[in-house]
Amino acid sequence: MSGVGPGRLFAVVGPSGAGKDTLMAAAWLRRPDLHLVRRVVTRAPGAGGEDCDCVSAAAFERMRAGGAFALWWRAHGLSYGIPRSVDEALWEGEDVVFNGSRAMLAEARARFPDLTVLHVMARPETLAARLAGRGRESAEEIAARLGRAGYALPDGIVAVRIDNDGALDDAVEAFLAALQPDRR
C-alpha cells in the first residue's frame, strides 16, 4: 500500500514536554473513533512517559529491515518507528494520529502527501517542569532537550499550531478543531 487512502493522517510534533501524548489521549476520549498509533521505541520498558512498544536496538533494526515501519527515525539517542499498520487504517478511512518528530516531517510528507501537521508548543518553563516531572531524564538530558525546543519545522511544512501552556481543555479543543472537518 502506498500510504494514500480515504483516511486522514495527522502528525503531532513539538518539543519534548509540550504534551503531545497527553493531548492525543485526551482527544481520543472525546473522539474514540480516532486511530492513535502506538510507536515502537528503543527505550527500556517502564522508563515512563508515552504508551509505546519498547524494543531493543537489535529488535528495532530487524523490524526496520523487514519493512515493519511506514516511517522511522532516530532522535535523542533512540530509534522510533510508526508501524506499517497505518496504511491499512488509512485505506479503511480512519483518521490516524501519530506522535512524530519535526526532523522526519519532510520524509513523512513525501510518503503521505496529504499529511496534516499539528505543532504542539509550550513555553520553556512549562517544558522544563514537565520534563523534570517525567523523571526519566537527567538534568543534562533535560537541558539538551530544552536546547532543541526551538527547532523549526522543515521548509515547506505548514502546520496548525496548538498552544499547550494553559488549561488542558483549551488545548484539547484546539487539537480537535484542527481535526475538522470531523467525519464521525
Automatic annotation (TrEMBL):
One of its GO terms (biological process) is 5-phosphoribose 1-diphosphate biosynthetic process. The keyword Nuclease does not apply. InterPro entries: GK/Ca_channel_bsu, P-loop_NTPase, PhnN. Gene3D superfamilies: P-loop containing nucleotide triphosphate hydrolases. ATP binds at G14, P15, S16, G17, A18, G19, K20, D21. Residues 6-183 form the Guanylate kinase/L-type calcium channel beta subunit domain. One of its GO terms (cellular component) is cytosol. Keywords: ATP-binding, Kinase, Nucleotide-binding, Transferase. The keyword Ligase does not apply. One of its GO terms (molecular function) is ribose 1,5-bisphosphate phosphokinase activity. Its EC number is 2.7.4.23. Pathway: Metabolic intermediate biosynthesis; 5-phospho-alpha-D-ribose 1-diphosphate biosynthesis; 5-phospho-alpha-D-ribose 1-diphosphate from D-ribose 5-phosphate (route II): step 3/3. It catalyses: alpha-D-ribose 1,5-bisphosphate + ATP = 5-phospho-alpha-D-ribose 1-diphosphate + ADP. NCBIfam families: phosphon_PhnN. Belongs to the ribose 1,5-bisphosphokinase family. Catalyzes the phosphorylation of ribose 1,5-bisphosphate to 5-phospho-D-ribosyl alpha-1-diphosphate (PRPP). This is Ribose 1,5-bisphosphate phosphokinase PhnN.
